[in-house]
Amino acid sequence: MTIGDLLYRRAIAPRVTATTKRQALTVIAEVAARTFDIDAGEALVALTAREVMGSTGVGHGVAIPHARVAGLNGVHAVVARLEKPIDFDSLDGEPVDLMVALFAPPNVVSEHLRALARVSRLLRQGEVREQLRQAHSADAILALLVREATSSAA
């Protein structure tokens, strides 16, 4: 499984305007709802509940919010590049401008954890983060993530 297996072009939001964590999560929930045919409210509640347990801001301007939502047939991703970094209570205290959210059905555990690990490994690479910050279209972001995921899996 690569990020390319989890991601659809229409699940990429390359220019999100948000000033708070809640606004950013709301946009992600709405993109997920449109793309994966799930309930946006349920997705937002699940994302918010996960954030209450601890921030998914992993550092270097990256957050990997994740949630379990009924109605999915597997793990799926939403990518958002924020126009301006926002406070996300990240582990390193840095504001977040890159978000890769993962959504999984409630009964899928190992696949969800593998997806989290893959996304985390990919976004630990400084060069990948910078290229994502420079990518200004969904097509460019998708091509970059698929290429990087494929080359790092090899």
Plain-language structure description:
This protein has a single domain, classed as Mannitol-specific EII, Chain A (3-Layer(aba) Sandwich). It contains six helices and six strands. The chain has helices spanning 3-6, 21-36, 40-53, 110-123, 126-134, 138-153; strands spanning 7-16, 57-59, 62-63, 66-68, 76-86, 96-104. Strand 2 and strand 3 form a beta hairpin. Helix 2 crosses helix 3. The two termini are 12 Å apart. The mean pLDDT is 92.
Into which percentage range does the β-strand content fall? Answer: 15-25%
How are helices and strands ordered from N to C?
HEHHEEEEEHHH
What global shape is seen?
Answer: globular
What CATH first level would be assigned? Alpha Beta
Q: Tell me the major beta sheet.
A: 6 strands, mixed
Q: Unreliable stretches, pLDDT < 50, 5 or more residues?
A: none
Structural class: alpha/beta
Domain count, please report it. Answer: 1
Helix content: 40-55%
Give the CATH H-level superfamily: Mannitol-specific EII, Chain A
**Could you say what the CATH topology is called?**
Mannitol-specific EII, Chain A
The first-to-last residue Cα distance is 12 Å
Q: What Rg, in angstroms, do the CA atoms define? A: 14 Å
Average pLDDT rating: 92
Count of separate DSSP helical elements = 6
Tell me the CATH architecture.
3-Layer(aba) Sandwich
| DSSP summary, beta strand count | 6
Structure in a nutshell:
The chain has 154 residues and is an alpha/beta fold.
